[in-house]
């Protein structure tokens, strides 16, 4: 069902990832890749992986084998724990290396905590799944680092050598007594790369290798990224627990802020107005016998104050949870919001059922805050609100043709709104280039 307020001028715009256009380059990515800083960082990562992987593999296998071999005695347990701790130390080094060279930010896993005493700490190390995942990384990383090193170095060296062959071919006749690189030779004949055509073909082949090598290296380090993320970071359960703790803090802070707002609105609004009303009625009561006309005027003014106080209480109640949302759902509630917006708003709600009440309330207040931003900051002529369902997600999209430039930078209203949505596993995406238009898309779990 669609309800239009004002002219029907809805525009549908795709949702982008940010408000700024991508940087423009003179050369295409295929030609830039061999000279980009990213390529050289990833090459350095691959080159360092082999010596680090060999040292880590040897130390890990030695310590773990020694510990397992001596489990028949008491010394095997602390040796095995020491080996796992050593793997965790190397894991911290690998996370730092990935952060510096691959720009891969992996959170540190939770430290090992014992209940008290050395043996308690040793037991905690042995029970920790993170420790054993670090050991698995130490075992798997060395063979992969060997393969990646060999592939990267060969492609890189042969590519640049062949590409620059016309520049250094003179070495062969000057110092080796041959005409160039020998491709074939036996007792009867030899084949050398010495003609201009052969050198040009060799250089072209080298150029192809030079251009392909950065993408090969990126493919190699993508495996390293997966290994670092999967084996050296915190577990999914620990990450989820951390997210839930953070979300709980956001929910508590939001609830506290809402309570403070309600208390402030009651104290500064309806309560102050009712106190003044009580004083006016008291004065009218005193003048009732001496000056009935003045008392009547005061009662009439008090009657007007009562109406204003009732309207403020209704607005406050609507801000807590609107009755129209409970009774008639999002379609009617969002239409009511749109009717109070300062610009014409077109509302389209395409839902075959109602989501959970909590999600419905969050969706209502999300659209309400976004339309308030349109009224106050966008300088828009029209706006639109679209609501629909995709699988088990509730989708909201608010679009305006204003000046743009909105973002979720720290301290902004959209940043607080994004935190509220994140607390319930929601997502807020803002596409607002300078000059507009602005499209804000919110995604919430259905939970119907």
How are the SSEs placed, and which strands pair?
Layout lengths: L1 E3 L24 H4 L4 H33 L6 H26 L16 H10 L1 H35 L1 H4 L2 H6 L4 E5 L4 E4 L2 H37 L3 H51 L5 H29 L2 H6 L1 H11 L4 E6 L6 H22 L4 E8 L2 E8 L12 H10 L4 E5 L6 E8 L3
Parallel strand pairs: 4-5
Antiparallel strand pairs: 1-4, 2-3, 5-6, 6-8, 7-8
Helix pairs in contact: 2-3, 2-5, 2-8, 3-4, 3-5, 5-8, 9-10, 12-13
Structural notes for this entry:
- This protein has 448 residues and is α+β, with helices and mostly antiparallel strands.
- It has helices spanning 29-32, 37-69, 76-101, 118-127, 129-163, 165-168, 171-176, 196-232, 236-286, 292-320, 323-328, 330-340, 357-378, 413-422, and strands at residues 2-4, 181-185, 190-193, 345-350, 383-390, 393-400, 427-431, 438-445.
- The strands form two sheets. Strands 1-4-5-6-8-7 form a six-stranded mixed β-sheet. A two-stranded antiparallel ribbon has the order 2-3.
- The protein starts with a strand and ends with a strand.
